[in-house]
Inverse folding.
């Protein structure tokens, strides 16, 4: 993330113009998918996944990457760039929430990034007043794709959800929705503790699930923090939990771990748990 601040700045300059162009020049079609927006090494589109329950509509953002290329999670690691979504031109009638399937951790030339390869769909949930009109989505998207080099991409997409969905597209979105971690409280992350000395690692106690240890753990802090992969350091005696340590020497100069809220995603095979926890004193 340290190496990407200038790349992020190139996005913000274009946002107001992109949103205006999208609103005025791109009509939203009432159909099951939008057209593809083709980039240099990836293409993106919106998918209509219907109205699965009162007060909620569902869609998906499909990112189809060329072989060998990756794009990034919301917390992209040391070198990645997270996608940025501008929905301001939409007629949604409520909140738009992007859901994130479990990502993968990549190591390239000793630098860590977190994201996706291949064909990925980010499920989108639109929470509306029951009985309201179907949402019209208009998205100005900025994202990055990387292989040996990184390339910033932009796309303007629109989709009128009144056009209905088709089983194939709806099931594709639902398949990726099933890969989104379940939000829970206290079931997976039992504690997070640190000292005032930043040379001392943060300690996490994470529970087993059905007797299995987590295969992967992702930890997110404030937006300007980079937190590396936790390292398993032992078992918490008498609890059946696993202890992980997380170095804090990469935090911003004046950052304090104590009292900070973290988001922890623990991955157990095909199941995952996402929880927030506040760092306590050790």
């Amino acid at each position: 993330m340290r190496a990407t601040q200038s790349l992020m700045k190139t996005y913000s300059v274009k946002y107001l113009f992109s949103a205006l162009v999208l609103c005025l020049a791109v009509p939203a079609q009432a159909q099951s998918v939008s057209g593809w927006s083709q980039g240099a090494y990836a293409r993106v589109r919106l998918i209509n996944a219907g109205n699965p329950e009162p007060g909620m509509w569902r869609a998906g953002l499909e990112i189809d990457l060329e072989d060998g290329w990756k794009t990034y999670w919301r917390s992209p690691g040391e070198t990645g760039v997270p996608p940025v979504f501008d929905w301001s031109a939409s007629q949604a009638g409520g909140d738009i929430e992007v859901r994130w399937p479990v990502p993968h951790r990549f190591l390239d030339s000793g630098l860590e990034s977190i994201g996706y390869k291949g064909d990925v769909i980010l499920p989108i949930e639109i929470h509306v007043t029951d009985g309201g009109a179907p949402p019209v989505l208009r998205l100005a998207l900025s994202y990055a794709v990387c292989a040996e080099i990184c390339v910033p991409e932009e796309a303007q997409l629109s989709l009128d959800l009144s056009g209905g969905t088709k089983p194939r597209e709806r099931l594709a979105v639902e398949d990726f929705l099933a890969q989104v971690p379940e939000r829970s409280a206290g079931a997976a992350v039992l504690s997070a503790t640190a000292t005032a000395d930043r040379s001392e690692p943060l300690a996490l106690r994470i529970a087993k699930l059905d007797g299995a240890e987590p295969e992967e753990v992702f930890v997110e802090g404030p937006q300007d923090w980079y937190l590396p992969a936790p390292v398993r350091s032992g078992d918490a005696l008498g609890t059946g939990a696993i202890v992980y340590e997380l170095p804090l020497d990469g935090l911003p100069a004046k950052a304090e771990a104590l009292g900070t809220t973290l988001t922890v995603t623990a991955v157990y095979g095909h199941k995952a748990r996402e929880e927030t926890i506040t760092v306590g004193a050790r």
Observations:
- Confidence is low (pLDDT under 50) at residues 1-26.
- The CA atoms of residues 46 and 61 lie 5 Å apart.
